[in-house]
Amino acid sequence: MEGEHTAMAAAAAASAAGARVFTASAAQGIVYMEEALWMPPGRRLPVVMCMVNRAIAPLGGLRPDHNDSLLQRDTGWIQLYCENSQEVLDTVVQAYRIAEDRRIYLPVAVCYEGYFVSATAIPTAAPDQGEVDDFLPPYKHELYSLYPEDYHRPPFPMNIAKARYEVQQAMERAKGVIEEVDEEYAKRFGRGYDGLIEEYACEDVEAVLITMGSMTGTARDVVDELRGEGKPIGLVKLRGFRPFPTEEFREMAMRYHVIGVVDRNTSFGSAGGGVVAMELARALYPLDDRPLLLNFHVGLGGSDVTINQIRYMAERVLEAYERGYVEKEVEWVELLDLGEVM
Amino acid sequence: METDRIFDEYYEKSLIQGGNLCCPGCGGPLFWRMALEALGPKTIVFGDGPCAMCAIRFLRVPTFGFHFSFVADGATGISAALEMKGRDDITVVSSGGDGAVGDISFNKVSAAAERNENLIQICVDNEAYMNTGIQKSGLTPFGAWTTTTPLGKESPKKNLPFIIAQHGVPYVATVSISHPADLKGKLRRAKEIRGFKYIHFVSPCPTGWRFHPSKTVEVARLSVETWIWPLYEIVDGTLRLTSKPKPKPVEEYLKLQGRFRNLSPDVIKLIQSNIDGKRERLLENDGERIVF
Amino acid sequence: MSIQFVRAFRPEVDNERCIRCGLCQTFCPEGTALLTERGVLFDLRFCKGCGICTNECPVEAIRMVREE
Amino acid sequence: MGGQGAVLGTLLLAEAAFREGKWAQKIPVYGGMRRGGAVTVFLRIDEKPIRRSCGIYEPDAIVVLDPALIKVEATRTGLRKGGIAVLNYRGKPEEVNLGVELSKVATIDATAISTDLFGPRAIPITNTVMLGAVSRATRWVKLESLYEAIRRQFPGRIGELNVEACERGYESVEVWEA
User: Fold this and answer.
1) Do C7 and C66 contact (CB within 8 A), yes or no?
2) What is the ipTM of this complex?
3) Could you tell me whether strands A22-26 and B119-125 are parallel, antiparallel, or unpaired per DSSP bridges?
4) Which of A266, B113, C15, D159 has the fewest CB atoms found within 10 Å of its own CB?
5) Which chains lie within 8 Å of chain A at 3 or more CB pairs, if any?
6) Residues above pLDDT 70, as percent of chain A
7) What is the pTM of this model?
């Protein structure tokens, strides 16, 4: 293939022809692919793709942030964010089950960061081919088109709206399916990821940090330390960004007083903060009793998310809990001088 | 220090900065130094993307770039802006690698050629995507090992200069760093012509072609002498060979490079017969109009 | 100036042998070889030690020596 | 650090540790993506699974693959008191001064061994020689585990050459201990 624009079109068409399809790209490639990225969800084709996060140029480098895949959040792709190589491997297998589920028929993007996951070598268990074959029976596409009469000519506007609504419905159903598939996977292979969202060390805490992707691993170590020091802070790992786990967050909002969202992305000129924080604010808005919300920008353009930075963010969250109000809604942690890194 | 001062003056004159980010023995910086000596300081270079990024950022002329997929586009914009400003003294150069010009941006280059934009399009062809880890491109030659063609590429190299020539552009030429006078002469000529000029430069890559960096110029010279990379220009549709060396066997060229290590004698014979045929057709058409 | 370039070998010229042809200057990719009145000079701030000058020298006046 | 096979060398070290039942993690931080560019690679070895994915700012040990880099300031950053340095350097280990009190300094002329075994190259590949030196100086991985890792990565003649390089690295390294 000479470019990503072509690669995705070919992948979508191959999927329509009945093949099980996989492709991968990063940063510039994902953005270049965007026109074609709308095809699989619109045509309801279960393509699986690894979106390896990398900062977009210019003002980006070779290293990761989440903006490239988050830019595709409106395309209709299911997006699962992974913490390490093991989760990537397991999630790709799960992704086909989710994408090819009759109730869903949507493409799945397995997102993980360049360098910190993609170029990092770490022991990873590969499941047995036979067991995977059992888990993933041969694929047979049964939903060619919802509106066959519209397939090769401009559809009626009414049908477009219907088709889009059906994608939204499928996304809603996907929440349950993702959890179901993950549970079954855990039963068979011994590794599970709590579906869309994982709460780590959250018993009896008052505040939580929400992370996505590779920084979660580092945050686990920091949260363990803080819990050891008796600080009431836990960690929530957001794995499923699309569909967004609205209900889970609403339920969490009843239990935690302060939520700090760590965003490895930014949306210039937005209502404030990163994409995850804004999504979360919308999810929590209808509640009467809302927790305090803090938002941090960190790791933009692929700079390292250090232990010091996570500790700093956790401390700001705890401070807001003690005071009962938020002093600074959005903070750019990288611009602060946190002294010696470690 | 005295030496440092002498060199700083030399870099200024050659329109390059000392120290670039290319691999040792890369043909790219050598090409740019020769090219800028021919084009002069009133030049704007447009181009980006991994290997080109390393080579272009050390030029002492204005440079600008986006990505792989915009090769001739940005240069078109610069050229249009200069025309609006009435600056016909500036040469616009658009540069891309083989992956960009031959594959990702092929449609852009083709469209710019069809519009006959006033710019020099250069293809710095190192015959694969080198910076990203030696992946095959459309301009990788038949039989060459890359990380995505571990057993050797099965399809032939796109003949890009001839494809561009068929657009009916005023000037197309191939150049080699082993023939500096020829290279500079062609660029000077391109500078004088108005419209779309295409220069194809095969850049030996020690890292991806697997040879010792000191052999770069030797490999480039052999590619000309074996007729694997013949030097010619196509002016207004008429072909003219600018170098007609006595042909050496292709094996001399192939055996210098690790990427051709696994070719069997039969395959080498096949490559030789292809090259022989190509050479005969080129010699037949020397001085003839080849664009229809 | 800090060392930017990792280099294992650097060129050394024997100006007695040198015939002042200037091919090393023509073919040095970095522009770090220069033929002057004082013979051939090398800019060791930027030389990457590729050895093209050695390979192209017609009289073998340049050799690569190991960097300390 | 080095760009002389640092990434692959670290991978082999990680694999050797893994073969001994430990957890290992290798994170490369590429410099310029070119042959001979300076490259930093981080390696963690632990008895339990490694979760954090951030870089290492206070290493227990540094390994420098190219003599030129010893003079570069960035090489020394973060090296802490009591740390270990394994250097491709011709001098004696006791002559090395990296600005902190180290517990161990090991030096080896890896370039010479590499040139001897693999022939002269513009950028000598010193990684496997240095692996042998690291094994001797740190005792973190056994030489045999390194051999296994090397043989798996490069089957055949190249593998045996690299095993020899590793062995000679182990034998020729000079270690100074505080």
Assistant:
1) no
2) 0.84
3) unpaired
4) C15
5) B, D
6) 94
7) 0.89
